[in-house]
Amino acid sequence: MPEDKSVLETYKLNVNNVLVEVAIVLYEEDIVPRYVVNITNMSKTTKIILEKIREEFISEVGVGVIEVSESGGVETIKAEFKKEITKLLKKYFPNADDQTKDMLINYVIEQNLGLGNIEILLKDSNIEEIVVNSAKEPIWVYHKRHAWLKTNVIIPNEARIRHFSTMIGRDVNKEISTLSPLMDAHLLTGDRVNATLEPISSFGNTITIRKFATEPWTITDFLKSKTLDFETAALIWLCMQNELSLLIAGGTGSGKTSMLNVISSFLPPNQRIISIEDTRELQLPNTLHWVPLETRLANPEGKGGVTMLDLIINSLRMRPDRIIMGEVRREKEAETLFEAIHTGHSCYATFHANDAFETVTRLTNPPINIPRLVLPAMAGIIVQNRNRRNNKRRCMQFAELLPNGAPSVIRQYDPMDDTMKTVGQMKVIPNTLRIFTGMTHQMIEEDLKKKIRILRWMVDHNVRNLNDIGILMAKYYRGKLVMK
């Protein structure tokens, strides 16, 4: 490797007692920085011996493990694997202590039954996305602080990538094959996975893993990171408390689902919430009365599929007070969602559009084609934005929908000073609250100020655990919240 380099950052990871050093390095000839992984407590000689153990294991007891796999799940296979590998380790590492043996066993299991060195990347909380483009190039990652980085982790061949995809799908009853070369699935940890097989992906087989936050984002995190400001957060809380429906719009990776997850903590605990997603991403406080539903793809014969539309229709028979929908993509889904709102259900959903005006345009034109006069059933639009130059995610707009279906932007993000500003006056939301709750303009202003005080208190006291926020909101709705 050339010596002309800049080390941008270094830190260490502990992956099942395997010590890993990560360096973010920019070499002179590079276009983007590199994410360099180095296992520090395992020599090259040890790795060579472990590879020999792996080959010996496959030749001697591989058939037995296959038989076990037919009668048990992943954990059963790992238990059998561990038992047999332990015998071989005693043969090659007779003087190793129990901790070292445990570390070596975990490493061999990850290399054979796990995702190999991808497991190391999954353990790095700084990484948001892991991308395998083919066996011809290293794995790429999207880092929270450094954006896209090229790693020094390489998958040896296309067959191994396909094996990883098949293994991921099998664990969650999804299938990927030559006849079904596209797969949306998730790891057992919740991380979202998309996989494609060649020749659909021309350069080779691909895997894209969007990591599931081990600790979900909360309203406190959003406020501290300036993703959302206090005034807009209080306005969203006011709408959700009083059963006004909201749509969250934004581009890919802008934080739409994270925003939906964050504001769901504002829901009262005495109401039934039904969530509908293609892949489970939402995490709500355990104080809420929540039933999560998930779609299912049809089998190769075209049977057994459960669509988003099926679940929306079914949810209306489950006596929901609130319906949370992962993403509106099709005409029938949008029609059913707005029908649910018109029949008295408060609904919250995400939608691909870059601002409030584009949201209305996309909703009211093919392929979704919702009548414009139906849109005001949705009280407001929250727009999320990600600036790809500085990697900042921000709430860009809060708009209410006028009686003619046009958006009226109330709060607008100013990128020059990184703040949200009031650019319009609310008309529809105050009138709706006056009709259904009796709240006057003065009462609304006082309520918003109280909510801002609570939100500031949460930030000052670092109340960022999801369930702690759920308890705090439950106390608020019961009138027993005391801020000390």
General description of the model:
Strand 2 (18-27) and strand 3 form a beta hairpin. The radius of gyration is 25 Å and the shape is globular. The model is unreliable at 63-72 (pLDDT under 50). Helix 1 (44-71) runs antiparallel to helix 2 (74-92), helix 2 (74-92) crosses helix 3 (98-112) and helix 7 packs across helix 13 (441-460). With 484 residues, it is an alpha/beta fold. The chain folds into three domains: 5-41 and 116-210, Beta-Lactamase, CATH 3.30.450.370; 44-112, no CATH class; 219-477, Rossmann fold (3-Layer(aba) Sandwich), CATH 3.40.50.300. It contains 14 helices and 18 strands. The strands form two sheets. A nine-stranded mixed sheet has the order 1-2-3-6-5-4-9-8-7.
Task: Summarize the structure in short.
The protein contains 14 helices and 18 strands.
Relevant terms:
9-stranded mixed β-sheet; Beta-Lactamase; alpha/beta; Rossmann fold; 484 residues
